[in-house]
Design goal:
Elements: E1 2-6, H1 15-26, E2 33-37, H2 43-50, E3 56-60, H3 64-73, E4 76-79, H4 88-95, E5 100-103, H5 109-113, E6 119-122, H6 127-139, H7 141-158, H8 161-173
Parallel strand pairs: 1-2, 1-4, 2-3, 4-5, 5-6
């Protein structure tokens, strides 16, 4: 089971909380992995601190087909940011059929996760809540499958180009 983080490796992304929660919850469990995709000021610090865990992988940045492949190989996206006006990686992950675990500081949470059965929202400073969210999806195959299908459906049936075009036309007419 693979959790995925995609984004800059900087303080406001709150990756320290994700890494600590993951280690607390899964330790060196070889059946569960955390893949961290991105670059930033804290990448080397985190590689040194968490390099001893074989189930935590820091890939550096990925673009294009490599990023598409990272989504395809993952099960759940986690975006733990303490500041995140939207979080386009949530849209990308859900379009790939990934449920998302996002903090309450991620703007997309309220349109794409809240009440949609596509993932979970946790308080941005609550490591235990994040751990509970990860456990729910990794230990309950039926819940995971339902949330994955709902995420895919939401992105492909509702949050698609026709929706964006409709919003743009309404804006222009106003």
């Amino acid at each position: 089971f693979r959790f995925l983080y995609v984004g800059r490796i900087i303080d406001i992304k709150n990756i320290q909380l994700l890494l600590d929660s993951f280690v607390h919850t899964y330790g060196n469990n070889s059946e569960v992995e955390l893949c961290v995709v991105g670059k930033g000021d804290l990448l080397d610090t985190y590689r040194l601190r968490y390099g001893k865990y074989a189930n935590i992988v820091f890939t550096g940045p990925k673009y294009g087909q490599e990023l598409v492949q990272a989504y395809a190989e993952a099960h759940v996206l986690v975006l733990p940011s303490s500041v995140e006006p939207w979080g386009l990686v949530v849209n990308e992950a859900m379009a790939a059929g990934l449920p998302c675990i996002v903090s309450d500081c991620v703007g997309a949470a309220w349109d794409l996760v809240d009440g949609k059965e596509t993932g979970f929202i946790f308080r941005h400073d609550d490591a235990e809540a994040l751990s509970r969210c990860m456990l729910q999806l990794s230990e309950n195959p039926d819940l995971y499958a339902r949330y994955a299908a709902n995420a895919y459906r939401l992105m492909h049936d509702e949050w698609n180009y026709a929706f964006y075009q409709k919003c743009l036309m309404e804006f222009l007419e106003a």
